[in-house]
Amino acid sequence: MTAVRPPLAPESVLLSDRVAVVTGAARGIGRATAEALARFGADVAICDRETTGLADTAAGIEAAGRRAHPAELDVRDRAAVDRFVTKAADRLGPLDIVVNNAGGGFFAEFLEISAKGQAALVDENFTSVTHVVRAAVPLMSGEGGAIVNVTSVEAHRAGPGFAVYSAMKAAVANLTKSLALELAERRIRVTCVAPDMIPTPGDAGLADDSAAMELDRAYDMKPLPYEGHVDDCAAAVIYLAGDLGRYVTGTTVHVDGGTHGAGGWRRRHDGGFVL
Fold this sequence. Notes:
Blueprint (H helix, E strand, L loop, with lengths): L18 E5 L4 H12 L3 E6 L2 H13 L4 E5 L5 H15 L4 E4 L14 H22 L8 E6 L12 H20 L5 E8 L10 H5 L8 E2 L9 H12 L10 E4 L3 H4 L3 E3 L4 E2 L1
Parallel strand pairs: 1-2, 1-4, 2-3, 4-5, 5-6, 6-8
Antiparallel strand pairs: 7-9, 9-10
């Protein structure tokens, strides 16, 4: 028999008294997500290698009236991840929401990437996600929960100059589908948010390094005629983490102004689209 659920209401968007973990929370999408989770009612454990920004994020969580558990952490270190997640659950309670946001890359043609560089990209963008999931799932609430993995539009298209980074984001997107099935009996939903065209401090130099944005300024890569913001990604996480997304799992929400759907079409500033 199907369980009777209360009807959707404005308060359905709230995450009151839930416990969340957000990696890479010192700035950009991670910070916006952690602070949004707090404003919607969650206590939030946060980690990053950059401690100054992490302290600012913790202050933002506490300003929203919620508890913060900040920790300096390299998510590539499995033992350190285990300690962080365990302490978070000990301090805040069983976990309800996990947001794997930490990651990063650099511009280089594939043949120029050393074995050490490739290993760093794999560990930071893929292996770190497996570390966090393995540590968090046994500590998640018996009522279920949500894991949201932040990937990229590059998980769904070529990434010249970012080949390994793109491949690892694609790997996370595929892992998300498998985990959605394997964790379904635990009532844990697993999804992705795939941003593009979202200005963040961590990406400030990448466009210059790659010259990827040196296009005819008569065109715009995204269909929507305005810029994305880190809060747009945070909004998608809020939806996926809470009751509004209670039947959504194994899929990706593209927060990209339409670039994925456009499939190469570019918007002319004077109207219409061209390939």
